[in-house]
């Protein structure tokens, strides 16, 4: 009897393995993705092909040679995930350069109707949060310089001016796309009329992360986020940034690589689950690379795989619970928790029972296999992108060994138990001749925005003198 059971289990696992084998990526596949990504990056940088390129390579106006920096208190805003954050950051000058301390902060959750209503509603909500923060800390009378970390694709005209190209990650507020984001914020502050702010800089979260890590390690010339969404920025030679005049020095380019795949570059790798996630999203056909990697989507991919296994009678006795059948119910944090289980299956069992399921030991093992396959593929896909960026930098700098630091932030990178290790190993495998250090950023969005605002303030002073 026992023998029969064991045989049943192992044949079940074999069948599951077979279904999951689609998630496997070979080194050749990753190199293909990397080369295609590099091609799109090149097209994004060139004036002639920029318009049609799927990877937009947006100039940020953050340059390699800052002209010094102001010191003092800065207000940082961070919009881009499920929460909106306000921070007060002190920037000072020491022997080793600038330092920052986050002195006060507050997190506000963004109500669904502010995310998907009108731009006015969203920015009114943001300025209401700022007003609340200033009230709490009795700072309403101060007109502080403000740095805005806005984590969406923005076409900048300057460091404090840029239009939103398109929303991502479940945001959809109407009337924002195509408009100057800093203008929307200034208008909302004016509408309230109970405080004043001097908006001096707007940056992407990748850029803020890179800047905050740069102050710790001057080799940090790449910033990357693997959180709700996924993206990277890096320092490119000005002569290659054709959208901005001038050939001297370097400028930080926000790749917006999450959009990769919009011209079919990933078609051969997309699975039935990816297609469903895409079709059910607010932006079908867009951000396909991000939808394989980002925390907004990874849990949903896993849920769809679980349902497929249930339908094939390989999981939960062929019966799913109502909760498991509900779109979005299996959040990406559950993938992290399942893979953090030390081996006694308790953690997995608890998660599954909270879904109204009664899992057997083998069910727990299968769920873990699913999570591992989905998150490993994400880590590998993400590695191909970063390897593309780093190999490009190595080629353009013609250094024997490129020594470089990558500043990283985001919930998937930070909270998943093995994403980092798998990711680091694959990036290194794909980047011969490069010596890469990964630096985890702490409070990167807030500190980075404050640091760049301090530089922007200095420049503004110099221009007005
Ligand atoms: C956005 C990027 C952002 C990334 C990480 C993407 O959806 O388009 O601008 O950097 O998410 O937050």
Describe the model.
The protein has 465 residues and is an alpha/beta fold. It is globular, with a radius of gyration of 23 Å. The model has no long low-confidence stretch (mean pLDDT 94). A six-stranded mixed β-sheet has the order 1-11-10-9-12-13, with helices on both faces. The protein has a five-stranded mixed β-sheet with strand order 4-3-2-5-8, sandwiched between helices. The protein has helices at 2-20, 27-45, 47-50, 112-116, 119-136, 181-192, 205-214, 272-279, 288-293, 298-311, 332-339, 346-353, 361-397, 411-415, 419-430, 444-464; strands at 58-63, 72-79, 83-94, 97-109, 144-150, 154-158, 161-164, 197-203, 220-226, 230-237, 250-254, 402-409, 434-440. The structure holds beta-D-glucopyranose. The site of beta-D-glucopyranose has 17 residues, from helix 7 and strand 10.
Describe the SSE topology.
Blueprint: H1 2-20, H2 27-45, H3 47-50, E1 58-63, E2 72-79, E3 83-94, E4 97-109, H4 112-116, H5 119-136, E5 144-150, E6 154-158, E7 161-164, H6 181-192, E8 197-203, H7 205-214, E9 220-226, E10 230-237, E11 250-254, H8 272-279, H9 288-293, H10 298-311, H11 332-339, H12 346-353, H13 361-397, E12 402-409, H14 411-415, H15 419-430, E13 434-440, H16 444-464
Parallel strand pairs: 2-5, 5-8, 9-12, 12-13
Antiparallel strand pairs: 1-11, 2-3, 3-4, 6-7, 9-10, 10-11
Helix pairs in contact: 1-13, 2-13, 5-6, 7-16, 8-10, 10-11, 10-13, 11-13, 13-15
The structure holds beta-D-glucopyranose.
Beta-D-glucopyranose binds next to helix 7 and strand 10.
